[in-house]
Amino acid sequence: MKRDIARRKHVELRSESGDQSNYQAHAKDSGVQSVDRAMLLIETLAEDDEGYRLTDLAIRTGLSRSTIHRLLITLERRRFVQFDRGQASWHIGAQSFAVGATFVRRRNFLTQVIPYLRKLRDQTRETVNLAVVDNGAMLVLTRLESREIMRSVTKVGGRVPMVASGLGKALLSTYTEEDVFAIIHREGMPRLTSRSIVRAGDLCKSLHDIRQRGYSVDYEEAQIGLRCVSAVIYDNCSEPLAAISVSGTASRVPDDRLPILGKLVQDVAIEITLALGGTIPVATGKNDESARNPRI
């Protein structure tokens, strides 16, 4: 009887799809859906170091508990997630770190950049960040923490909207207006704080100011009480490669300190660009010949 039921379902599925190729495509789509859901679980677990219980994952992802449990068991077997029996919670596993570390190693500039980030942290006594663009958001690759107490808006491996961060606005200032509007259309302009920029016209004005002075400022747009000053690193084709920033509390980064931090961040960004064999675009600040060619 079970065999007859299975055969009947098989025939019904084929008749709905029309032919054998469509039936195979349906099976393939089901497999893709499982992969997509597994990736969603990994991304969700990565949001919180404390991990999630099964019920919490169901609420956050919208998936059924049975589906989540089945996927987690498979991911656990591959060491992408791990289960804490004492807390009855799921966490990111060692294999997820191994895969992520490969991404960082592929961007081999990281090892070369660290000494410059350390220098910038020591000069400013504030936290220094390095981030790249990843699918319309800023992905933090590394951070050198200040010795001062500060709660960061995001962590290493975390993401923050381009339009709501100093790092993101610095990179957006190198984009064409058409590309900026495309990102706004796709990602939106989330109001993270009362000071977030939520109008395209206001963002364009801010990007114009950034191009004029050579660095961006996050005026507590991503997190109240936290300010950020950022500049762009360029590759050998004068294309934006990454961005670095100095972040600190508003009390330690008042208005009169912004130009000082801006110059330090911009200078270090130029040093990193040249160390990596990059070139500074003609339209960018400090674009004289000595900046583009360190041998002069």
From TrEMBL:
Molecular-function annotations in GO: DNA binding; DNA-binding transcription factor activity
Domain HTH iclR-type: 32-94
Region called Disordered, residue ranges: 1-30
Domain IclR-ED: 95-278
Signal peptide (from-to): none
Keywords from the UniProt entry: DNA-binding, Transcription, Transcription regulation
Bias (Basic residues): 1-11
SMART domains (UniProt xref): HTH_ICLR
Gene Ontology biological-process annotations: negative regulation of DNA-templated transcription
Cited Pfam families: HTH_IclR (PF09339), IclR_C (PF01614)
Protein name: IclR family transcriptional regulator
